[in-house]
Every structure is written in structure tokens, then in C-alpha cells.
């Protein structure tokens, strides 16, 4: 059973000495002195706690002068927001969890969880920075892939793959979203990625109520068939690569004739190779090596 039950999205009031907390020890240790008489403070003298998501302000009383000090359990930004709340939203996206998963995970660990709605809001607020970061990472990786290819007098070679949110079979594809990536064969890094979505929750919300849809950053960028997303994404990515001076010479992809012909129409010199098991293994190995290097640094 979950230790902390949510009551209408919020954890019921709990005392500072119940459950676990996520604490930055150094930040906490540096604050454990009285501002008035400079005496060291003790955690056993906590008299109250104000929780803000996964961060807390602890009310600690000084044994000597009885003054009370608010002590933060972790770093906060200039507006006073706890860094841990952005980190947990980032971790949620990185590990492919949703707000409810995070809440269940933390509750089971006996850590009072944040409100799922707050997590969703955080996710939205960091999504744009994350996309900028991903785009920069792709540009750097493309330049690296090109440099290695040039040094070996090889053509820029990459592997293309697409997937859909729901499973498609040979004759039926009806997923509302599709995603794809181009991975460099030499670096094993993602050089570009793309997404196609038929739906947008904001549009749906207003259309469902027969209201005029207000101006908004719309998530829907595809009106065609689900299968048609694949060649469109391949062409967009290869075009973007070309625009940034990293022309793709060889592309490995599964045997999809629509994608090949669409690419050939625009890039007559591109060579298409079928993805072999050896190639998948090679890319996977390069990718693993890359991850090991980036984990060490
Ligand atoms: Zn004191
Ligand atoms: Zn929309």
C-alpha cells in the first residue's frame, strides 16, 4: 500500500519526522547555525516543515537564544523555487514516466510526492529548453560525424528509423503520432530527429466544445496517413542535414520504397542501403561507447 495517499491531488499534511526527504547534504549542513548567536543548530530541534514539491523549508529552533531559522533542504533559484522540482520533471521525461508514475514511485519510497498537476506544468515549462538543447546536440553531433567521415575520405553515412506510438501492421497504420531519428554510423550519435502528430490537445479541447480555436503553439503538424509520416520525416531530416552543410551520402533504412523514392526525388545522389544486423550492432556499439564516455566526463 502507498505510504502517502493523495487527497484531491495533494498529499495530506504530514509531520517533518514522517517518511523520507530528498536532501542536498552540503546545502543543509552549511545552514545549520543560528543567525543571531552563531550556535550550531540541530535537526532534532525542527519544529515545523513547509513542503514545496520535493523541497522543504525546515523551521529549526536555537537551543541557546530560542531564535527560529528557516533551513532549506536544497538549492533554490533566484525566484526561490527548489531545483529538485525541475530535476524530477526532467528525470520523469528522461526515463519515459508520466506524472502518475512519479507519484507512485515516490510514495512507495516513502517520500511525500509532488502534485501530478505541478509535475505536468514543470514538464511543459522545461520542454522548450530541452528541445533547444536537443537541437544543439544534433548540430554538434552532425559536425563531428562529418569531420570523421572527411578524415577517412568516406561519405557521411547514417541510419534512419521511424516508429509510431501505436503498433502498425503491414496493411494498417493508424497511429496519431510518429517519430524518427537519424543516427551517425561513425559516432553512434543522433544527428537529427523528427515528430509528426495528427492531433493537438488544445485544438481538440476547443473543437470538442464547438468553439473557435484561439492562437496557440499547435502540436498538430500532420494531416495525411500514418504511414505517410515516415518518408516525410526522412526527407525533412536529410534536408536539414544538407542545409547545415552535412550532406548525407549513404542512408541505411529498412525496405520502405516510399521513403527511398521520396529521398531520391530530392537527393538524386543519395545511396540507400538496407539496414543489416551487423550495421545495427555497429551503431549500437558506437552508441554504448559514446554513452560510457559521456557518463565518465
Ligand atoms: Zn541562537
Ligand atoms: Zn492545436
From TrEMBL:
<dbReference type="Pfam" id="PF20700">
    <property type="entry name" value="Mutator"/>
</dbReference>
<protein>
    <recommendedName>
        <fullName>Mutator-like transposase domain-containing protein</fullName>
    </recommendedName>
</protein>
<feature type="domain" description="Mutator-like transposase">
    <location>
        <begin position="19"/>
        <end position="286"/>
    </location>
</feature>
<dbReference type="InterPro" id="IPR049012">
    <property type="entry name" value="Mutator_transp_dom"/>
</dbReference>
